[in-house]
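Give me the fold.
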Amino acid sequence: MKAGSTFGGWALGGLAVYQPGQTFSITGNTTLSAVWTVNPYTVTYLNTGSTGGTPPIDPLSAYASGVTVTLLGANTLVKTGFTFGGWRDFDTQVIFGATFVILVSHDFLPVWTPISTPTPTPTPTPTPTPTPTPSASPSPSATPTTTPSPTPSSSSGALFTITYFGNTNSTGVEPAPTKGAGLVTLATNTGLLVKSGYGFDGWNTKADGSGTAYAVGSPYNLTANLSLFAQWNPNATFTLVYNGNGSTSGNPPAPTTGLGPVTLATNSGGLVERGGTFYGWNSRADGSGISYRVGSKFLLSQNSTLYATFIALVVAKNPPSLIANGKIINTAPPKKIALNQIVPVHQQFVTTLPPSAASFLLYENGKYLLAGKSNSVNLKQIVGPKDRVDVVAVAKDGGKSAPSPVKLSKEPISLANINFNTDSYQFIGPATKILDQVAAVILQHGYTKLEIWGYVDTQGSKASWVTLSNNRAKAVNAYMSAKLRGSGVLIRNAGRAQTQAVGNNNTPEGRALNRRVEIRVS
């Protein structure tokens, strides 16, 4: 066994995968390696609403899809005046029984049932007895003095949780829970919660806004578990401030006030950095955040600041002409991709150098990417819709032209292949890690469309090929949909049976390559 993983068969040389009991031919000493599929789904028990104790910890770190899970007990959780009544799902608010079939990750909250107080039966008035002295020991039959159950507090070192709810948001995700005791800082809108036609307006203890309101980032004395709900204001407006970020002359544009998508300002104030040319805006002063072109759209859902970015230049006496025809194209990916792999970058920068230029420099989001002298250079990293790429022509005396924008290809680009066992649509090997990388690439580079194409080898009946290829595509779709929830990425999938084979269906190694899902983005 391997914690958090499911046994997926035996691998031969990293290519062919065989199931227990399956036969194959050998011609010499052979080593088979166990294939482990990383389980994608977790079960977490929370202590929300309790007054003491700790929730159970699931002994398995993760589960595969479709496995029957047995819910655990309360462990040491208690709530004064209540009895433990089981667990309910965080999202669907459904109280589960003893077992359930897992298809997604779950966070479970305890269900607390009030203890009913019985109607007291009249008893004779007891004969008064003297009050015992402090040193006196009570007799075994005496009623002990009631000691209240200890309530966790910051002084005892117990941690509490603030859980945030999107409260009818249309996109975005809730901030991660805040855990602590005593003075903590309330979350900002880190997950970019958005509700169409409304502005995010802080947190409230009641979904309808009738409770206590709190501003984002404000201090809070946390002494008990707390739920906070996003508040939505149809009349809210926010301010976007532009920062010159070390400019040596010029002025940043006036702030932009609004709600929802706004158009970013140009360099209307002529910002200049000594030896540099204005490049655009970035969400971080050091340029490591999200880059934005002037005039592009920005989602204004809270007060924000954007920082000017610059490209350093040494201008020649006779600067070379601008390169106006530079573009990035997607080339054909390698036909054969090893099992469960990210496809190597297959993008090129192509241009025609002007006669006055000796070479060029390429910048991605304000950072140096590569240099070249030929008219076609292979890229080393992915460039997507969110990225800004500029080319600078370099003269023989070392002088440089101003940056010229590069056009990006809108054609889909293949990112990864996910492979499967024979007649199966369950992930094998490091598939989930590959899919996590794909999700990160999509979000980082701003792709908005995800295409998932399922394929099979030629084993089995032809009638099963379409169904199996469809199921493989759907399995990847389900995983990616959960990963990209709230991002607005459009996902579509289809099964393409045995078409577009990349391996020889007459060999085990070739069939293993053909049992795949191809992932493309645009």
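The two ends are 39 Å apart (CA to CA).
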